[in-house]
Amino acid sequence: MNATLVIEWVVKSLVIILVLTGGFAYTTLYERKVLARMQVRRGPNRAGPLGILQPVADGIKLIFKEELTPHNADKFIFTVAPVITVVPALVITAVVPWGREISLFGRTFTLYLSNVNVAVLYILSVTSISVYGITLAGWSSNNKYATLGGVRATAQMISYELALGCAYIGPILIVGSMSLVDIVEAQAGVWFIFLQPVAFLVYFLASLAEVNRAPFDMPEAEQELTAGYHTEYSGMKFALFFMAEYIKMIAVAMIGVSLFLGGYLGPGIDRFPILGPVYLFIKVAVWLFVIIWVRATLPRIRYDRLMALGWKVMFPLALLSVMITALVLLFVES
Amino acid sequence: MTIMQIIFLITASVTLFAALMVVSTRKMMHAAMWLILVLFGVTITFALLETRFFAIVQLVIYIGAIAILIIFAVMLTRRSMNADVPQVNRNWWLVMVSSLALFVGLVTVMSVWEGFFVTARTAPPGGENLVQLGTALVDPNGFVLPFEVASLVLLAAMVGAIYVAAERKEK
Questions:
Q1: Do B71 and A129 touch (CB under 8 A)?
Q2: Which positions in chain B touch A162 (Cβ < 8 Å)?
Q3: If phi over 0 gives left and psi between -120 and 50 gives alpha, with beta otherwise, what is residue A105?
Q4: Mean pLDDT in chain A?
Q5: What's the pLDDT tens digit per position in A161-204?
Q6: Nearest CA in chain B to A80
Q7: Distance (Å) from the alpha carbon of A271 to chain B's nearest alpha carbon
């Protein structure tokens, strides 16, 4: 463990965090622009050319807003809940590779922070921690709507985590490794979306439920729960929840792209390894577009339907996909 | 003293302190939070031994699943916000004696085992051998019997839970 290696890790971690927080700001703008175009509006266009300074304006507004803490809230948990929500979102992409190796300043860098052999399990464990923030936020607010939102969020996220976990197994079985670098490299010939279409579909839907996006945004259903678990939050604490949601959107897009859409691979990657992050960025942008498209198109589904879909359709489907994959692999091997 | 030892000492003391707080704090939700800290300390201990798989499995199962269910149950409990409920019932001394006896008994039984006095080793670089672990779980000469018994117990618990939760039709 030498000093240059430590510096390299620190720089890479900082880059990841900066890209994610910057990505959060511009995903909000991206979403508002795309939604506006789909509804034949223009969207934010006053702050800066084409509205590109809108996220900055939003940020400044949120910093100067008054912070309220309900009188009977559990002060400590109320304060740490937003932090517990944001931190998992920030660290989850540490195992997602951005590219291969590049040479810079006479040194060879790998374009990923870590290549651990349990990367996929790591992702599962971090997603399971992010449930806490929402649950505790809902409970500690001491507000009926917030508590109901928190309870709903917990039930929903635990239910969909199962299907999500099963969707990971297909690519792992094919590659025989849980490292995301190995999984991406194995897709040089054919992307896993063509080998694992069911797992891909299950992953896409379950990840929408996992990050509480439409049509699964039950925890914050405005009409029934005012704003769900973050009803009592204001100012920067609210901004942290907002941030966590968008960073998680980016994170599930990055993970999904790496698992099913060939990650950083693309034409010319062998000659110019620097293209890796570019391909990853393009694929993530397309994925986010589809997520926003779904929000603009589909109404929220009823809570009992949501649970039925999770347990009676997606989970068995994911299990079936795992079983068929395993059998086909056995058949091919023998 | 190496950095690893210092990290271990800090982790161990925080874990033990948190374990004490789990049973001594007044609010149920805070007890649950302290429990999560205890489980997290165990995760760090696993990570210090470089057993990546066990560290992450500890995180997924205990923190990600079991503790969240405990929090879920506390959330649905009435008056979970106040601290004015009595902390112990009148059998507290019985529980203390039996848990002390259990602790002493476990330590006595464990001290007979030769591995009890061996210094802990870290896992080989690259983490533990997962394939070996997987085959040992389904090997008749390995752990297939405990594995199957555990799954049977879980199945029974699941059937029981469904029976308890099922809506019964009147008449």
A1: no
A2: none
A3: left
A4: 82
A5: 888 888 888 888 888 888 888 888 888 878 888 888 888 888 98
A6: B33
A7: 30
Q: What range does the domain containing A79 cover? A: 70-333
Least Cα distance to A173 among A321, A334, A314 occurs for A321
Mutate one of A77, A132, A145, A151 to test the B interface: name it (highest B CB count within 10 A): A132
Which domain does B65 fall in, by range? 3-88
Q: Does B37 touch chain A (CB under 8 A)?
A: no
A154 touches B: beta carbon within 8 Å: yes
CA B39 to mean position of chain CA atoms: 7
Inside any domain, residue B96? no
pLDDT over 80 at A269, yes or no: no
- A200 is a domain residue: yes
Ranges of chain B whose pLDDT falls below 70: 1, 78-85, 125-128, 169-171
Residue A146 lies in a domain: yes
Q: What is the pLDDT of residue B150?
A: 92
Residue A229: which pLDDT band, with cuts at 50, 70 and 90? confident
Arithmetic mean of pLDDT, A138-151: 79
Inside any domain, residue A1: no
Q: The whole model's pTM is what?
A: 0.82
Domain membership flag for residue B16: yes
| Type of residue numbered A279 | Y
- B63 → chain A, closest CA residue: A129
- Distance separating alpha carbons of residues A77 and A250, to the nearest angstrom: 27
User: How many Cβ atoms are within 10 Å of B72's Cβ, its own excluded?
Assistant: 18
**A132: closest CA of chain B, how far (Å):** 7
Nearest to A139 among B29, B126, B127 (CB): B29
CA–CA dist A109, A119 (Å, integer): 20
Taking CB atoms and an 8 Å cutoff, what residues of chain A touch B81? 72, 74, 142
The residue of B72, B78, B128 whose CB has the most chain A CBs within 10 angstroms, and thus the best one to mutate to test that interface, is B72
B39 found inside a domain: yes
Buried b (16+ CB within 10 A) or exposed e, B114-135: eeeeeeeeeeeeebbeeeeeee
Q: Which residues of A touch B59 (CB under 8 A)?
A: 125, 128-129
The CATH number of the domain where B15 resides is what?
A: 1.20.120.1200
CB pairs A-B closer than 8 Å: 72
The count of domains in chain A is 1
Structural domain contains residue B170: no
pLDDT in tens, A154-164: 888 888 888 88
Subunit contact A74:B33, Cβ cutoff 8 A: no
Chain B within 8 Å of A326 (Cβ-Cβ)? no
Q: How many structural domains are present in chain B?
A: 1
- Alpha carbon B45 to its chain centroid, in Å, reads 13
Write down the pLDDT at residue A215: 79
First to last CA, chain B: 72
Whether A99 is covered by a domain: the verdict is: yes
pLDDT in tens, A22-79: 888 888 888 888 888 888 888 788 887 877 888 888 888 888 888 777 777 777 888 8
